Amino acid sequence: MLKRRKRELKFVEGRPQESEWKRFIRVFFGRRIVLFGLIVVALYIIVAIFAPWIAPYDYKTISSTILSQPSAEHWLGTDTVGRDVLSRLIFGVRPTLIVGSVTILIAAVAGTILGLLAGYFGGWIQTIIMRFIDALMGFPMILLALLIASLLGGGLKNIVIALGIALIAGFARVMCAQTLTIKENDYIIAGRSLGLTNFRLMWKHIIPNAFPPMIILATMNIGMVILMEAGLSFLGVGIQQPDAAWGSMVSAGYNRLTSNPALSVAPGIAIMLIVFSLNMVGDGLRDALDPRLRGTL
Amino acid sequence: MVTYIIRRLIQAVFILLILTFIVFGAVRLLPGDPLLMFLNATDIEALSPEALDQARHELGLDRNLVVQYGIWLGDILQGDWGKSLHFKNANVLQMIGQRMPVTIHLGVLAFFFSSVIGITLGVIAAVRRGRWADTVATLLANTAITIPIFWLGIIMMLVFSVELEWLPVAGYTPINEDFWLSTRKLIMPVICLMIGSLGAVARLTRTSMLEVIRQDYIRTAWSKGLRERAIVIKHALKNSLIPVITVMGLQVRFIFGGAVLVEKVFAIPGMGRLMVEAVDGSDYPVIQGAVLVIGIIVVLTNLIVDISYGWFDPRVRYE
Predict the structure, then answer these.
(1) Is the same domain home to B72 and B113?
(2) Residue B87 belongs to a domain
(3) Is B154 a domain residue?
(4) Which chain A residue shows the shortest CA-CA distance from B8?
(5) Residue B3 lies in a domain
(6) Is the separation of the CB atoms in A81 and A64 below 8 Å?
(7) A242 preceded by cis ω (within 30°)?
């Protein structure tokens, strides 16, 4: 049975008329590791939405036992002020996913607009925008975020702003390169000779065609953003207590490593799992959407 | 070639100017009193409104922003980078001069090992595509880019220093004082710092190698009867390194970024730790100086990377 299916697949592969959408489904869901990533991401989203019902305790509730070892009541023990570690881990999914998605949204929208304007109009507009982007690329992203976060103060909103600004450069570069290629196409020239406005050409013709690489970049960057947020929270400029953030949980457990390793180890694993899964989904999207790989998969 | 280098140099100066503008603007344009650049927050609260106005006037903060930028840039170019608010008025440029060699020591090691190991892993994965070596190397690379480095540092400390007592827990010794101790202290920080770059370089080398291996000239090399080693190293690797070099240039940025976390975990007195201390103490002159210096280094390395393309790929024409 398995063998027959494989042969059928090969046959389908050889057919040039396979529709775009079918190919996407086949390549994207074809790799088991991508499926694994998708399932983990879906689980994290479910946990984030239903956190108050899933978590055994509230993330702020302080119990009388501090630093207890893992037990039946507290599966991962309690932290330095007696809060249930598992519950804080579960509530910590929320800021992680919010920072990941909102930051990428801000950076992608701003980067797309800047890159589009630079690539479409060219000339001095391109020079000014892209040199500015180059300068932004000169800073390590976490330093830029650290600088902005230190000026604005910590907290979820400011972390999102700081990381969003730090990430714009990558999106703007890709969008600019895309626009430069796409605007040479005949259909753009045709559109222009039909008298379409610049706005319409950009909005209806360039952005949709530049979409695949942007979506790949966005997915690939979510994992990185989550790692940076964890780093900033670890340094103490990120999400502030008593809100649960995995980075600050690692840093809080830092001094209790030998006696209560779960305090630092558990949030670290939670971060790794989601970042790994998001990267795998990103890889799957790239395999399915990148035109250069067409025909090889 | 020469005109290209000159053009790129002019461009780099232009980028550096924008860089200074961003650094200047970050403190002046974002909410927050620019007086913070010169006085401690506690000092500002203690002063009366008139004294504050007086201070603003003396420091030129009531003048046009463009004029202020010009004066500030002039000071920077003359080597007056201001005084630290937190560290008893220490000269910012001198502080950076003390801390920078430590981070460069750490960074150069991390850069070297991440490149060598990353490229090797990537080549092995590509050459043995689909076999177990590929599976292992790819999994290693994919895991490497997902580990929070500060967390890895803590775990390694627990295992290798506290439990096994193989390595010193933390700290830094200059290489000329005690080479052996210095190296032993740096093993864990360097692993943490290089792990992300290693994964990124390995992944990219694999993709790039796979593309090159499909080319006709590789088939020609095989049919000429060349040995595998010669084909992989001489023909395939050199040609697949161009995108890898671009990413290696970008890694400089990530290494400086990672240093912020790694130096904090391992108590290493470098630039990263200086930044964290400065942020904690709202020491804006130091933050500004450190960000500026790192920005300059990153822009200059990218310049070198761009120029080095031609050596690896004669097809690259400088226009």
Answers:
(1) no
(2) no
(3) yes
(4) A131
(5) no
(6) no
(7) yes
